[in-house]
Specification:
254 residues, alpha/beta, Rossmann fold, 7-stranded parallel beta sheet, 9 helices, 7 strands, 45% helix, globular, binds NADP nicotinamide-adenine-dinucleotide phosphate
């Protein structure tokens, strides 16, 4: 029993989770903290109180860091003090945004914003934090991909392009860094009840169509991602490289 607990323990580890204020990022932050990691909660507005309270409830520890990941030219400078203070063992690139509009009218400004947050920031953080991991010969990077890393979606070209990019980047970094002791993997959540999907849940026809296609018969909850994240953050996944783990209630197998 102790052997199994040790395999999943994150005691003594430091994790950085982006987009930690809400939804999936919040659930993963709480899960990693409960497993013993000191969690650096990255948000872009000073309102992470709900995540902090949930971490305190499980007896975990945290710090907060405020960086706007859409301002990609500033990320390297802003992350530097954190890297001087902490050895980051686990990076969860979770922050992501969606903008819906038919492709012919799609705003170029929104395209840039979505691709900056969902893909360019993921590369910059992986590079800046991955550098130390490669030097130390150990580290875990978990990127939050999507079913739209495999499928096209409707009216979300920037989101789909960025999430296909996240899956590709995961495999590219995994190939390079596997031999250096750094595991880079991704989680592709299915339809999860968060702010990100509020608009489609409020569209009753779309909501019904989605529910009918999910073999599990329900929307996922942010907490449904905790186990997968813990697995990929821990020793339990030391021989898992470049995998995109789908957590979708069976959507992709239908
Ligand atoms: P969410 O609750 O909207 O979470 C997104 C998080 O990213 C929020 O905490 C948000 O902070 C943060 N964020 C947004 N813009 C940012 C920026 N410029 N800089 C820093 N942080 C920023 O939605 P979610 O569903 O949990 O999304 C988390 C990840 O899961 C995303 O990558 C999303 O694409 C992915 N995903 C979600 C689903 C789903 O069904 N929900 C499915 C597949 C993949 P604020 O709220 O303060 O703006």
């Amino acid at each position: 029993m102790q052997y199994v607990l040790d395999l999943f323990s994150l005691k003594g580890k430091t994790a950085l989770v982006t987009g930690a204020r809400t939804g999936i990022g919040q659930a993963i932050s709480v899960g990693l903290a409960a497993a013993g990691a000191h969690v650096l909660l990255l948000g872009h507005r000073d309102n992470l109180h709900e995540t902090k309270a949930k971490i305190e409830e499980v007896g975990g520890t945290y710090e907060t860091v405020l960086i706007d990941l859409s301002q990609v030219d500033q990320i390297r400078t802003q992350i530097k003090p954190l890297l001087e203070k902490h050895q980051i063992d686990i990076l969860v690139n979770n922050a992501g945004i969606v903008y819906r509009e038919p492709a012919v009218d799609y705003s170029e400004q929104e395209w840039m914003r979505v691709v900056n947050v969902n893909l360019n920031a993921v590369f910059i953080l992986s590079q800046e934090i991955g550098r130390g991991m490669v030097e130390r010969g150990a580290g875990k990077i978990i990127n939050i991909a999507s079913l739209l890393s495999f499928q096209g979606g409707i009216f979300v070209p920037a989101y789909t392009a960025s999430k296909h990019g996240v899956a590709g980047l995961t495999k590219s970094l995994a190939n390079e860094w596997a031999a250096k002791g750094v595991q880079v993997n991704a989680i592709a959540p299915g339809y999860i009840d968060t702010n990100n999907t509020e608009a489609i849940r409020n569209d009753s026809k779309r909501n019904q169509a989605i529910l009918e296609r999910i073999p599990a018969g329900r929307w996922g909850l942010p907490e449904d991602l905790t186990g997968a994240a813990l697995f990929l953050a821990s020793k339990a996944s030391d021989y898992v490289n470049g995998h995109v783990l789908v957590v979708d209630g069976g959507w992709m197998s239908r």
